[in-house]
Amino acid sequence: MTSLTNAVRGSIEYLDKSKAYFIDNGVLLFLWIGLGVAEAWVQDVFGANSVALLNTENHIIPEKDNPRSRGIRRAMELLQRKGLRRRNVFIVREGDSLEPWMKKFLVERQYYGVYSARLDILKPRIIEAAKHQLGEEIIYKQLENLDLHEKALVIGTIEKRISQRPSILKELAEDEHILPDDFDVEGCLVSSKDFLEFEDEKQIVKLEGNITMDEVATGCTVGLFGSQVGVISSEIKLCFYLFTVLYIYIYIYIL
């Protein structure tokens, strides 16, 4: 193994009970194991006859002389290399007492429930507005059903990716004097490395095209007309090239 497989979004609802996942938040590394994982996988990786018989208290992935074991340990090694520091590894079986604690570290999905509920409510109104603007023949699709270069309406939530946004990880890195040379601790947070992401119910893509960082804010529910244009980096597999911003909902709360 020379590279990691594609990542899924950091939310418990995306974890398939018949599989196992590494969950990496940059501070801790978890190996989450679903109760439906095949016995052959459990035997090869841990030497146990079933998921129920796993010893998850010692948080050790033993060395076994088989392809699955070598693949798991190689994946863990690659993840450790990506981080700012070496992380402690915790093995969490689905339903174990550690699972609620693990879920607290899925901070990327902090407002997922709010965004999802807002999307469900606003989607019919956005589709109606899109048909009024571009015609009744406009096609709405979810990102996972969109063919490469196919033009369609997609509806979801905007998120700004600010490379120099303050975070606990950067504070830890600063304490250890391992920040990159070009990181401006006290200066402007705006950077040429910043970009926009768009997320619907099941997938996320980078946005490019007829939109700028200043036009939207994280949490905006939007309807976009454009097409996916292919692989752009090892981290973000697909880019959605935007032709038209059809509708943007921004909530302003009066306090």
TrEMBL record:
SUPFAM superfamilies: C-terminal, gelsolin-like domain of Sec23/24. Gene3D superfamilies: 2.40.50.430, Severin. Residues 8-74 form the Gelsolin-like domain. GO terms for cellular component: delta DNA polymerase complex. The chain crosses the membrane at residues 20-42, 238-254. InterPro entries: ADF-H/Gelsolin-like_dom_sf, DNA_pol_D_N, DNA_pol_delta/II_ssu, Gelsolin-like_dom, Gelsolin-like_dom_sf. PANTHER family: DNA POLYMERASE DELTA SUBUNIT 2 (PTHR10416:SF0). Belongs to the DNA polymerase delta/II small subunit family. This is Gelsolin-like domain-containing protein.
